[in-house]
Amino acid sequence: MYFSYFDADFVTDKSLKSAITKLSSYREKVQTVIKTNDATQPEFSLGYVQNPAVHDTIEMVKKRYAGIKHLVLVGIGGSNLGTEAVHSVLDTGAVTLHTLDTVSAHAIEQLLQTLQGVKSVKKIVVCVISKSGNTAETLVNANVLLQALEIRFGAAVYNQTIFIGDTATDFMKVGKRLGVLTITMPTIVGGRFSVATEVGLVPLALLGHDTDAFISGVLDATNEELESVVAENAARMQLYLNKTYRHYNFFAFEPRLYTLGAWYRQLFAESIGKETDRAGKPLTKGFLPTISTPVELHSVGQLYLSGFAHVYTDFVTFDDDTVDYPVQKKGVGKQYGRFTVQEVGAAIYGGVVAAYQERQSPYRSTIFDENLTYSLGLFMAMRMLETMYVAELMNLNAFDQPNVELYKHKTREILGM
Q: pTM of this prediction?
């Protein structure tokens, strides 16, 4: 994995070192949590995959549901975005992923129409994920979907259903009564940090992905060399925040990485977007995270390259050498006939980066150059750790989300619940 940076003048070695020094004790704490497998601390999300029981669960699920063709993932936010992010990059078509996240009768109807051609229930697995067990979107979608599938397949549909969540919730108790496979996730780990728990690993295994490679990437994120990169990046982020940078643009330069940007947007926004810090002081700094793809080079790219102030860009891409096409030396576009599609794409990326430098627009860049499954595990774990470090530098609790509960409370009020 290659990292590069183009920083504003105020990001100096001295300023980075000063911010990194402030992280010293917290960095030690995180390492201790991982080494001791401390399940009482939320940072446990980075070391949970060391537990042999996780691997046993993965193997059990793969064996029990071998040969499926459709996985329906019912969840929202941290319950589904991690799986979607990885699958969007690695999808080979062996198993089709369907997701239900927001409440939409239209989406349910489309899904049921799609599944109409499936003759055997054994070709489908429904995986319902809710940490809290009371997420309205998840419960409503699961209820309607499972009832519709029960009409078609009878009670056998519950043999093809998995519930993942905290152990003592009503959601999990209902799952046991229905006879579905219930899998618990670690209570201390929040949804947006849960991709390296059963929440992400079970669906990824069902989709046929190499979870061992993904787990290896997750574990390597906290080794000495890469953890140092994370600490420096967290320090860099705080320096931009302190200089009133408020717009953070995740630029997925390969469109398949868009959902990875959505996963990161939720991770960062929900962790850093707080009203007050841990001392009760109003929070006045923060990033609004957005996602771009090369399509935006012909829309908001004009805005960014015009010198629009205080935007920090995060370029993410990879060298995809598994497929390429030569541009023909005849017909439309023949002037590019000396190149391949990959070469033109690389030139466009280089052109964009050069334009950012000419405009003095700061950015960081990550290029995946290894096994993509491993690289995704490494990248996601590094970003989770980085988010923890940024929160620590801002004196925030990275692991709560008090304001997300507000809309849930208002929804129940409207429904008279």
A: 0.95
